[in-house]
Amino acid sequence: MSALFSHIIKSILLTCCLTLTLALPVWAHTMPVSEIDLNGISPKATLSFVRQIYGEPSAKESFTKGEVRSIRYHYGPLLEITGSTTLEDNLSEDELAVAGFRCKANNFSTPRGFRVDQPISKVISLFGEGERFTSKNTSGQEETSYLYMFPGDRGDILIFYTDRAGFITEITYRSNLTR
C-alpha cells in the first residue's frame, strides 16, 4: 500500500508542476495597473477631472447595460472616455469613475510611452505578446489585437489594436463595468 500511495502522490505533484508550467505564459502577459493611464485618464479619474483637463466633450451619450449606468464622452472621432457605475449607486455624472477609453490619437501615451503609430514590438518586448486575436475592423481591413489583463479581481483589460505592418492603431481600456 505504501508504494502505491507514494506513486499516487508523485503523480499528483507531477501533474501540478506540468499544469503550472503550461499556465505561466498566460500569467506572464499581464501589466502593472499603472499602465491603465493615457495622459491622466485612468480608473482613478472621474468624469469631472476629465472635463477639467480636456474641456467639454464634443458629444455625450448616456446608456444603461444590465445593472450598469454609463456616460460616454466623445472628443472628436479619435478619443472616447466612458464613466460608469452600478444602477444602485446615486453618483452624479461628475463623480463617475473612468471605466473605459478608446484612443486613436497619437498624442496620448501610457506611462511607458506606448501610443498610436508606434510598433507593437515595443509593448511585446516589455510585457510579452498578450492574448492575440486577428479580425477585420469596421473598414474591412485586417487587424491584430493584443489583449493584456491586470492583477486583481476588477477584470480590467488593455487592448492594443494594430495594422498589418504591426503599428498600433488604437488603445482601448475596458473595466468589467464596460463589457
Would you mind describing this structure in some detail?
23% of the residues lie in helices and 31% in strands. The protein has three helices and eight strands. It has helices spanning 2-27, 47-54, 121-127; strands at 59-65, 68-74, 79-86, 97-103, 131-136, 142-149, 157-162, 168-174. The protein has an eight-stranded antiparallel β-sheet, with no helix packed on it.
Can I get a quick summary?
The chain has helices at 2-27, 47-54, 121-127; strands spanning 59-65, 68-74, 79-86, 97-103, 131-136, 142-149, 157-162, 168-174.
How many β strands by DSSP? 8
Portion of residues within helices: 10-25%
- Provide the gyration radius in Å: 20 Å
For the biggest sheet, the summary is: 8 strands, antiparallel
Helices, by number, come to: 3
Mean pLDDT: 84
Beta-strand portion reads 25-35%
Low-confidence stretches: 4-28
Strand order of the largest sheet: 1-2-3-4-8-7-6-5
Q: How many angstroms does the end-to-end distance come to?
A: 53 Å
Which series of helices and strands comes N to C? HHEEEEHEEEE
- Specify the overall morphology: globular
Give the class from helix and strand content and strand pairing: alpha+beta
